[in-house]
Design a protein that fits this description.
The protein has 17 helices and three strands. It has 392 residues and is mainly α. The protein folds into two domains: 223 residues, Citrate Synthase, domain 1 (Orthogonal Bundle), CATH 1.10.580; 107 residues, Cytochrome P450-Terp, domain 2 (Cytochrome p450-Terp, domain 2, Orthogonal Bundle). It has a three-stranded antiparallel β-sheet with strand order 1-2-3. It binds carboxymethyl coenzyme *A.
Length: 392
């Protein structure tokens, strides 16, 4: 056996050095390249944040225009990719479709898979950021049985995405700027979160030299789980299951019961032992969306507000420092925007793509980069001799 330190869940091991995102979990602080998340979400737009994550600085006016143009240039996907979608069952989970289709991009865009070529890396990054909304919207359209809607490049990133999801060819589509702005904020809030499970997956996949499309597909697969990106879907399903404020105590009791595997979805975080700063902005955005849509008495929102109140005052949650996380409010907002719960994690993947790429790019451009190869503490049998099957 080797002399290695066992650290299950990597709670005390840094896997890399990074200059992209800073989190102080005790204080509830999240900075991208030094900028607080609330300032970016309230004052910036998603593509600006993409630029910041990728290149380290906010773009000048000219740089922003150029970047927006270059991303927009890549919004279409190869027409033949439609056949990928139609190969899936209609009832396929959109995340299953995402894993497959995004992985397949490497079979369509050969001229941006050579990771040793800086230009190709850049083109792959732009392609992924640009095509993810198109692919996510196609997954949604396929899911609901409606025709695919092509991107419209004179719209901004989030308005274009909402249109690709909710426009139909038979009637005029009127976008709502308040909802598009909310969508944009949701994307900003999900853009990066340092070395979480899916980002670490992307880095590990990339450390072997795999192409960026394959790496992002690996990230999507990891994000799918309910302990990670799948929590927004799980949180909303839980609110629906609770159904009424009267039933909250029953679920709180279950969450506290050591013999019951049930957890309050949307609560707790590996790093934040304080209010997740993103959850606060998400809560505000949620109310903006509900106001805009004139949704006053949403039963799920009532349950959510009451649940939050109880959890923030209950000794169990206080002692374990379990605060609402971003997924707690994003679910209600996305539902109000018109998305089915199965799309929630897809939207997370769409937004997180830039974080994954920025982290992948940082790793590839690090001259000290080596293949990620964790060691283990072997606990199996000692050496023994093979016995033929008829002697066993
Ligand atoms: N409800 C009830 N108890 C909980 C919860 C919860 N949501 N989360 C943690 N605990 C308890 C847990 O039982 C444990 O108690 P004890 O120390 O008595 O055994 C203690 O708190 C510490 O939990 P842990 O599982 O050791 O903490 P972790 O850092 O390994 O897990 C987590 C973090 C986010 C996976 C977990 O809090 C959880 O499962 N939350 C619900 C799912 C969720 O909302 N996930 C989204 C995370 S944020 C966005 C993202 O990453 O995608």
């Amino acid at each position: 056996t080797g002399m290695f330190t066992l650290d299950p869940g990597f709670t005390s091991t840094a896997s890399c050095e990074s200059q992209i995102t800073y989190i102080d979990g005790d204080e509830g602080v999240l900075l991208h390249r030094g900028y607080p998340i609330d300032q970016l979400a309230e004052q910036g737009d998603f593509l600006e944040v993409c630029y910041l994550l990728l290149y380290g600085e906010l773009p000048t006016k000219a740089q922003k225009k150029d970047f927006d143009y270059r991303v927009t240039h890549h919004t279409m996907v190869h027409e033949q990719m439609q056949r990928f979608f139609t190969g899936f069952r209609r009832d396929a989970h959109p995340m299953a479709i995402m894993c497959g289709v995004v992985g397949a991009l490497s079979a369509f865009y050969h001229d941006s898979t050579d990771i040793a070529d800086e230009h190709q890396r850049m083109v792959a990054s732009l392609r992924l950021i640009a095509k993810m909304p198109t692919i996510a919207a196609m997954a949604y359209k396929y899911h609901v049985g409606q025709p695919f809607i092509y991107p419209q490049n004179d719209l901004d990133y989030s308005a274009n995405f909402l249109r690709m999801c909710f426009a139909v060819p038979c009637e005029e589509y009127k976008g709502n700027p308040v909802l598009a702005k909310a969508m944009d904020k949701i994307f900003i809030l999900h853009a990066d979160h340092e070395q979480n499970a899916s980002t670490s997956t992307v880095r590990l996949a990339g450390s072997s030299g795999a192409n960026p499309f394959a790496c992002i597909a690996a990230g999507i697969a990891c994000l799918w789980g309910p302990a990670h990106g799948g929590a927004n879907e799980a949180a909303l399903n839980m609110l629906a299951e609770i159904g009424h404020v009267d039933r909250i105590p029953e679920f709180i009791a279950r969450a506290k019961d050591k013999n019951d595997p049930f957890r309050l979805m949307g609560f707790g975080h590996r790093v934040y032992k304080n209010y997740d700063p993103r959850a606060k902005i998400m809560q505000k955005t949620c109310h903006e969306v509900l106001n805009e849509l004139g949704i006053k008495d949403d039963p799920l929102l009532d349950v959510a507000m009451e649940l939050e109140k109880i959890a923030l005052t209950d000794p169990y949650f206080i002692e374990k420092k379990l605060y609402p996380n971003i997924d707690f409010y994003s679910g209600i907002t996305l539902k109000a925007l018109g998305f089915p719960t199965t799309m929630f994690t897809v939207l997370f993947a769409l937004a997180r793509t830039v974080g994954w790429i920025a982290q992948w790019k940082e790793m590839i451009e690090d001259p000290g980069q080596r293949i990620g190869r964790p060691r283990q503490l072997y606990t199996g049998s000692a050496q023994r001799d093979y016995t033929p099957v008829d002697k066993r």
